[in-house]
Amino acid sequence: MAVLVLVRSPLPRLRVLLQRCWGRLERGLWPGIFGGQSPPWGPALAVQGPALVPQGISDAGAPNLLESVVWMAAPKQRRTIEVNRCRRRNPNKLIEIKRNIDVCPECGNLKQKHVLCGYCYAKVKEETRLIRMEIYKREGGPFNAPTVETVVLYEGEKPTEKDEGKRIIERARKRPSWFVQN
């Protein structure tokens, strides 16, 4: 099936160029379609292996297009939804039941063994925030802090000989059981 496209250009040179290109297309690429002579048909020899090709024809130095492409596996058919669900919901892939749950000795809430309790951590975080605020009040800001070790003393504790020359922060409350004295 041939389609003829008529293009009328306002510029005569462009129209001549388009007509010349169309003529070359008719003569060269599709001679049988537009009534011209097609090349004669004849027998052809198909060669499959590279052993039959003479060595002078193939260029061993330049890589072939197929050799330079990284080939990856691709599925031949789409997996069905049933197969996908069976694979995803396999009992081996489901969430396992945790058997390492213990009661926190400090607060009594459930926690994992060898992991800090979340409720106790919130208490530690709050106590640390209060200590930092007290340091901020005493020093006047983070840039005025001395470069010495800080010791936190709670109600009823006195500094020892080791604490000489260190920054001492005093808290007006009883020491929490989780805050170990150094």
Q: Your description of this structure?
A:
- The chain has 182 residues and is α+β, with helices and mostly antiparallel strands.
- The chain has four helices and four strands; from the N terminus they run αααββαββ.
- Strands 1-2 form a two-stranded antiparallel ribbon. The protein has a two-stranded parallel sheet with strand order 3-4.
- A hairpin with a 6-residue loop joins β1 and β2.
- The radius of gyration is 43 Å and the shape is elongated.
- The N and C termini lie far apart (95 Å).
- The largest beta-sheet arranges its strands as 1-2
Low-confidence stretches: none
Strand content of the residues, in percent?
Answer: 5-15%
Q: Provide the succession of SSEs.
A: HHHEEHEE
Helix content: 25-40%
Q: Compute the gyration radius: what is it?
A: 43 Å
Shape descriptor: elongated
Mean pLDDT, as a whole number?
A: 77
**Estimated structural class:** alpha+beta
The N- to C-terminal Cα distance equals 95 Å
Number of strands: 4
What's the main sheet like? 2 strands, antiparallel
Number of helices: 4
